[in-house]
């Protein structure tokens, strides 16, 4: 297990999904399944304009929308601009998508077989490379730090958050924007063997930042990153993150997790998350999300932390809507060997991938330390950040 | 802090295994051939640097890239003494095109292909029990990016051993689109030549085992990684930016604590396209300044083709072999250097013997302006 770099926090969130524009709204849609007509597809033009569309595939447009939302939320780009207000080389990009450019590859190959390479549009060239999403985000906002594209299967979104934290912890960048995006089209639906309606057409984004760099520019943190694990099987992954069976305050389950409904007795040999812990499957609200799932889970968890924080001091972390609370399990959390300043019951457990996948990834998201700031702002850093 | 390379593996059009690949490159053997896996009539370009492992000309199979990756990782892990069990070791794979070739075959031709094998974690778990696997789609600098991330995991103390790999095969979509944009189809890759016509893709995989260097311990090592830089031009989605490349070269040297005059050998990215080679030449000239005639320079894509995501790591392995042996493979097809590179000390026509090479620089740049530069040194210092 990789211990969470305690000093890495979330300072911005962004969404480009149908029917939910804030973490709270995404959480509500996840908790209470909405009936009635499906919401309209997300209108990318309304956020990034026609110029933002040029030569870009749907996945890239969605990613640009979510990234812009997150960067604005983190106050790294002004409300009326696109360039970041900090030096561009202090910002990295980590994008995650498994299916993003499958359509370009497959349709291009088919067009060649039908006619010839000379009939192709040269404007498709960038989209033939899977990292085009991360590149366009960097170009649009002037982000010159490391630029990563994760295509890592079911765990890819949580893996992307992890690598952003590694970049920050290693001092490569002070902050990074993480984007998870997937879209559906005929190619994707065919290769996955699922109808397009089951699949996500949307994106989510986070800004993760070194706590000291966030403090130095006066940015507000909405969550702190806890430990991350990628391992074989859901049970082992959860046990590594929450030793001694400690109960998290909420569990964002793998996509369409079949371990039973909330409140059920855990299946024998199943997942060591007590049955009383509220379970949320974000993919129920937005569609099967593949490489975007982990980032969507983070955004929804930020919504959960905000709501739990609003009720802090009473039933810290207990989700009022989901019924069963987790206070009964706090003794187990406290019995863990490692002294953890944040009890498990106030943390959100996020897991992607299940036992049918090559691995399962898990991440804990925590409330940020109390307002008393352990990282006093240092004037020289502030002036450096603003010297652009 | 430095890291040791304790194992290496390579599969390319010119051979299988690090020894065979390096011998072939030093002998000036090229993997160039007529296009094997695709219907030649559909393209103006008719050549590539393919691994000849298909059942028959014009037919193609899914999963070839995965097979080469597993062989390269297996070779590196065996040499490092890790055996076949990588259940506790992170495996970071840099690739440009993943198994997109298999997806093309599945969607267009109905070839059976499990979409869970688009990334490489599924196959790595099956063969090596590896679960801490990460597939990075980072275009043509992907494997050096993966090396940089591995170095960070070792530096921060999170890990003491990491496997780093790179792999790519030709996709019909990328080959076709490159064919479409080339003004005149290239018949071979001629890095840094005035008359270069463009890039040709190549098949291949490369892998290394990277270990934290412990004081006092003296394990057998192929070489030492001093530093790896990574950045993004944030300028253009396909065209390179000499400023971004120069920043990456400068940062790598700065991180490694070396100056241009300390570099004995440069493995250039050298794709043979008009824009890339000109941008790389400008960046190298700027960073090296008056020292630009100091290091030997070579570019192996003239013999391997552009192995895309795996190319940076393949160049790095060749660099380590060159430092250890004193032999540097030639840049074939380089008749007259492009303007701005006249002063570069290219190794041409045949391999050069130079006994005292100590420090090498390896360049890798990719679509999207993703740049990574590594500095390595001979292990015995």
Using brief descriptors, characterize the structure shown.
heterodimer, A: alpha/beta, 10-stranded mixed β-sheet, 13 helices, 10 strands, 32% helix, disordered C terminus, B: 381 residues, alpha/beta, Peroxisomal Thiolase, Chain A, domain 1, 2 domains, 12-stranded mixed β-sheet, two-stranded antiparallel ribbon, 10 helices, 30% helix
Write the layout of secondary structure elements.
The complex is a heterodimer of chains A (388) and B (381).
Chain A: E1 8-16, H1 23-31, H2 44-48, H3 58-73, E2 91-96, H4 102-114, H5 132-141, E3 147-150, H6 156-169, E4 175-182, H7 186-192, E5 202-210, H8 211-216, E6 223-231, H9 234-241, E7 250-252, E8 279-280, H10 282-286, H11 293-310, H12 330-334, E9 348-352, E10 360-366, H13 379-385
Parallel strand pairs in A: 2-3, 2-4, 7-8, 7-9
Antiparallel strand pairs in A: 1-5, 1-6, 4-5, 6-10, 9-10
Helix pairs in contact in A: 1-11, 3-5, 6-11
Chain B: E1 3-12, E2 15-16, H1 18-26, E3 33-34, E4 47-48, H2 64-79, E5 91-95, H3 100-109, H4 121-128, E6 133-137, H5 142-155, E7 161-168, H6 172-181, E8 204-212, E9 223-232, H7 242-256, E10 265-267, H8 274-288, E11 296-298, H9 301-304, H10 311-325, E12 327-328, E13 345-346, E14 352-353, E15 359-366, E16 370-377
Parallel strand pairs in B: 5-6, 5-7, 10-11, 10-15, 11-13
Antiparallel strand pairs in B: 1-2, 1-8, 1-9, 3-4, 7-8, 9-16, 12-14, 15-16
Family (chain B): Belongs to the thiolase-like superfamily. Beta-ketoacyl-ACP synthases family.
Protein name (chain B): 3-oxoacyl-ACP synthase
Domain Ketosynthase family 3 (KS3) (chain B): 1-378
């Amino acid at each position: 297990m990789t211990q969470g770099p305690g000093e890495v926090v979330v300072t911005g969130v962004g969404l480009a999904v149908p029917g939910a524009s804030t973490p709270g709204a995404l959480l509500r849609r996840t908790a209470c399944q909405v009936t009635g007509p499906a919401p309209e597809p997300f209108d990318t033009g309304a956020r990034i304009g026609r110029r933002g569309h040029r030569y870009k595939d749907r996945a890239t447009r969605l990613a640009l929308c979510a990234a812009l939302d997150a960067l604005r939320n983190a106050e790294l780009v002004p409300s009326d601009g696109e360039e970041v207000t900090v030096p561009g080389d202090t910002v990295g990009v980590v994008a995650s998508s498994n299916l993003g450019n499958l359509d370009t590859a497959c349709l291009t190959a088919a067009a060649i077989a039908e006619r010839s390479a000379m009939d192709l549009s040269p404007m498709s060239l960038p989209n033939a490379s899977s990292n085009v999403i991360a590149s366009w985000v960097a170009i649009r906002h002037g982000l010159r730090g490391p630029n990563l594209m994760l295509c890592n299967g079911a765990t890819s979104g949580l893996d992307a958050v992890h690598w952003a934290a590694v970049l920050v912890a290693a001092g490569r960048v002070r902050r990074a924007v993480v984007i998870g995006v997937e879209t559906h089209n005929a190619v994707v639906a065919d290769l996955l063997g699922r109808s397009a309606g089951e699949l996500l057409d949307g994106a989510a984004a986070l800004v993760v930042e070194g706590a000291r760099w966030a403090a130095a520019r006066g940015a507000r943190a909405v969550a702190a990153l806890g430990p991350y694990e990628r391992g074989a099987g859901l049970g082992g992954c959860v046990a590594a993150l929450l030793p001694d069976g400690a109960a998290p305050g909420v569990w964002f389950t793998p996509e369409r997790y079949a371990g039973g409904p909330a409140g059920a007795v855990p299946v024998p040999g199943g997942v060591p998350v007590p049955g009383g812990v509220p379970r949320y499957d974000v993919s129920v609200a937005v569609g099967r999300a593949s490489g975007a799932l982990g980032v969507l889970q983070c955004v929804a968890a930020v919504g959960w932390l905000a709501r739990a924080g609003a009720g802090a001091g009473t039933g810290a972390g207990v989700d009022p809507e989901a019924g069963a609370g987790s206070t009964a399990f706090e003794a187990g959390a406290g019995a863990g060997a490692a002294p953890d300043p944040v009890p498990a019951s106030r943390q959100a457990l996020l897991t992607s991938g299940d036992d049918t996948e090559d691995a399962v990834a898990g991440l804990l998201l925590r409330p940020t330390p109390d307002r008393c700031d352990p990282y006093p702002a240092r004037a020289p850093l502030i002036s450096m950040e603003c010297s652009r | 802090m430095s890291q040791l390379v304790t194992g290496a593996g390579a599969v390319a059009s010119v051979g299988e295994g690090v020894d065979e690949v390096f011998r072939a490159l030093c002998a000036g053997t090229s993997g160039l051939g007529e296009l094997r896996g695709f219907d030649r009539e559909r393209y103006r370009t008719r050549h590539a640097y393919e691994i000849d492992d298909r059942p028959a000309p014009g037919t193609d199979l899914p999963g070839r890239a995965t097979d080469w990756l597993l062989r390269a990782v297996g070779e590196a892990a065996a040499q490092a003494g890790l055996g076949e069990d990588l259940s506790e070791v992170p495996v970071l794979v840099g690739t440009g095109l993943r198994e997109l070739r298999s997806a093309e075959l599945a969607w267009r031709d109905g070839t059976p292909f499990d979409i869970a094998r688009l990334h490489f974690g599924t196959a790595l778990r099956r063969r090596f029990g590896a679960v801490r696997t990460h597939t990075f789609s980072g275009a043509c600098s992907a494997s050096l990016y993966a090396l940089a991330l591995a170095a960070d995991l070792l530096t921060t103390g999170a890990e003491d051993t990491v496997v780093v790999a790179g792999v790519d095969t030709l996709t019909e979509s990328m080959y076709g689109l490159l064919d479409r944009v080339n003004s005149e189809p290239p018949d071979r890759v001629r890095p840094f030549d005035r008359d270069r016509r463009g890039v040709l893709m190549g098949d291949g995989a490369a892998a290394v085992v990277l270990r934290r260097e412990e004081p006092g311990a003296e394990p057998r090592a192929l070489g030492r990684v001093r530093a790896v830089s990574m950045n993004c031009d944030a300028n253009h989605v396909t065209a390179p930016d000499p400023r971004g490349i120069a920043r990456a070269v400068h940062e790598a040297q700065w991180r490694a604590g070396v100056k241009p005059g300390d570099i004995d050998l440069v493995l250039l990215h050298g794709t043979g396209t008009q824009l890339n080679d000109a941008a790389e030449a400008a960046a190298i000239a700027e960073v090296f300044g008056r020292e630009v005639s100091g290091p030997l320079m070579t570019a192996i894509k003239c013999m391997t083709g552009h192995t895309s995501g795996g190319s940076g790591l393949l160049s790095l392995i060749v660099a380590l072999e060159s430092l250890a042996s004193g032999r540097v493979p030639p840049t074939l097809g380089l008749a007259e250097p492009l303007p701005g590179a006249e002063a570069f000390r290219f190794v041409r026509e045949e391999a050069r013997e130079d006994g005292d090479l100590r420090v090498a620089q390896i360049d890798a740049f990719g679509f999207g302006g993703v740049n990574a530069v590594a500095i390595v040194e001979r292990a015995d210092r």
